Amino acid sequence: MAQLIRIPVVLILLMLSCSLSGCFGNNIFTEDKKGIPGGLTMACLSSAKYTSMVVEIDHDSGYMPEQSSIDLLKTRLQEVCDKPNGIEIMLTETDFGQSGAWTADDVRQQAWQHKSTDPQTGSTLYWQALFPSGGYSNNDVLGVAVDASTVAIFKDAIEEAEGPFFSRPNAEEIENSVLVHEFGHLLGLVNLVYTSPVDHEDKEHPGHSNNEESVMYWAVESANLGNIITGQLPDDFDNDDLNDLAGMLSGEIPVSDQLWLP
Ligand SMILES: [Zn+2]
Description:
By secondary structure, this protein is an alpha/beta fold. The protein has a single domain (35-250), classed as Collagenase (Catalytic Domain), CATH 3.40.390. 34% of the residues lie in helices and 13% in strands. Strands 1, 2, 3, 4, 5 and 6 form a six-stranded mixed β-sheet that branches. Helix 3 (67-80) runs parallel beside helix 6 and helix 5 (155-161) crosses helix 6 (171-186). The longest helix has 20 residues, at 2-21. The radius of gyration is 20 Å and the shape is globular. 42% of the residues are buried. The protein binds zinc ion (ZN).
């Protein structure tokens, strides 16, 4: 009799703990150290521990990133992160099963549910981009960075941000820039985990550059970018961004909120 009573209690406890922490199907790693965007900046810039890097791209069916976006992201990361054993891109078609608008919490939860491993695994650093169907809860947003290792890019919103026929920038160019921009946030830009000696953060758009020739320019992730940026979209970090990264790596610029320090 006592055993018959005990089993349901255990089940109820399991269900309770599941609803409190969220149920992760492949909970093979701890996800309590998500950090903030920029929290793994030093892990990327330095090769003292993480000598290789994997960028995991999980995309809904029909939402695979452009090859040009993948190539550009890899190039930009190679230019600033010291990874002697290479940077690899891992594409995985993923059914997020989500309809309706995404919140930052949705992005975090879905990302951690589908991560292949802990972002800090051995000597490899894992960063992740989701390419889901649907849009963000704020329609003006083309991409978001939600924690130290996770971004999401909203292709549907990027398609809509493209101007009429033959106009520039087109959706592919926008995706190129937005993807690099969001990974720029994972690199701590601008002023997310440090304070730049140069005044290049846009006062009205914290965490962004005031230089429209930087990929970290605030309008790059906005659906109105076509109206704000005339001419070529920036797809590279400017000198102030690059100097900030170099200063953090050399120790000249103090860095906060790091999940790993050399
Ligand atoms: Zn941004």
